Amino acid sequence: MTRPIKYALLFSAALALAGCNETLEDIAPKAERQLPASIVTAMEAKGMSKSSPVMMRIFKEEGKLEVWKAKQNGRYDMIASYDICKWSGKLGPKFTEGDRQAPEGFYTVRPAQMNPKSSYYLSFNIGFPNAYDRANGRTGQHLMVHGACSSAGCYSMTDDQVAQIYAFARDSFKGGQRDFQIQAFPFRMTPQNMARYRSDPNYDFWKMLKEGYDHFELTKVPPKVDVCEKRYVFNQVAPEGQSFSPTGACPQTSQPDSLIMAYQQYQTQYDKAFSSALGAQPASGPAPSIAGHKEALLVADWSKRRARGERVSREPPSLAAPVVAATAPAQPAPAATASSVAATASAYTTPPAPQGVPDTVEAAAGASAEAPVTTGAVPAPSPRPDAAQAEVAAQPAAEPKSMRRRLWNMFGG
């Protein structure tokens, strides 16, 4: 066997074992595919343009990737939802390279992270590890949203799906957007889901993500994301001359009053729904720790005593207190107006730059060395026959009707 043939065979074998590896091929024209006319028409009806800013949300358990775009009033609305073809690992964040976990958290995508010549049809690097991941010692690289329906730590779509998702981002960059936010969650952060997973080891991490989720649900503007004391902080403003250090102490920050009042009202409603969900469904996930077991017993006893009409505390034992401070006025806080919340939130639309992200398409085309995952080990749902089609204007309801009505009255459309 000649030396060139040996090199070719070795190169082919390396590609087969490369997991989410990327290679560059001369197939860039597919990156210029245009969005279907039906989506363009829907965008126009919602007050969006093809080049208006974009953001994306991922939900593992539901197997969904949502695309949101800014309307003329600056607030975002969902324009498309896609069934994720495959994602690897389980619910929970990515910790180390090789753990086959798809990341969870708040990430930033810039033009240099887009790969129009991906061997996985099209792809973009979501920016893992971000500042939070690095501050907490989490490792991994080149985690993508890509086509080809094959995942080893990435979020994989069909080729038709990723062509549309790529087009949304491409058109927004052409319109002047410098970067877009992608939010990756284990599930929709509803009171019912949070109650189901209250005994999961990742619960505290998910509660932290939920604050950013809630800020977006309230303002419909991607939250400003910073990291200090090794945790995410959302829509916080540091004093002039001070900054956020991922591993350092958080500075004394502030928020607009309208956002504080809106969040307090939102959290009060959530606390009620969460308490109700605790008595309606068992916890899901791994067996709780000893401390978690004791808490479960206390909550069960509290629920029984309340059902018998005995005098008990308003909240279950050992649960976090509502966000509203004890010194808050007794009367309901005045509702924030749509203009005030949208105006204050619009200042938070530029996330911090991710560190260690490849600067070029060639660098972004590098891949994780994580081993491939077999189809049977992937927990994501099988795609429906129409998975490649965008579910235009099909935003799911995440809160009870009373909550949606309250938010509608507060902020309007």
Automatic annotation (TrEMBL):
| Name of this protein | L,D-TPase catalytic domain-containing protein
Region (Disordered), start-end ranges: 364-403
Q: Which family does it belong to?
A: Belongs to the YkuD family.
Judging by the UniProt lineage, the source's domain of life is Bacteria
Q: Residues in domain L,D-TPase catalytic?
A: 54-185
Cite the Pfam families for this sequence: YkuD
UniProt keyword Cell wall biogenesis/degradation present: yes
Record-level GO BP terms:
cell wall organization; peptidoglycan biosynthetic process; regulation of cell shape
Q: State where composition is biased (Low complexity).
A: 387-400
Molecular function, one GO term: carboxypeptidase activity
Q: Where in the sequence is the signal peptide annotated?
A: 1-18
Where are the catalytic residues? 146 (proton donor/acceptor), 154 (nucleophile)
Keywords for the protein's UniProt record, in alphabetical order: Cell shape, Cell wall biogenesis/degradation, Peptidoglycan synthesis, Signal, Transferase
Q: Which InterPro entries match?
A: LD_TPept_cat_dom, Transpep_catalytic_dom
Q: In which pathway does it act?
A: Cell wall biogenesis; peptidoglycan biosynthesis
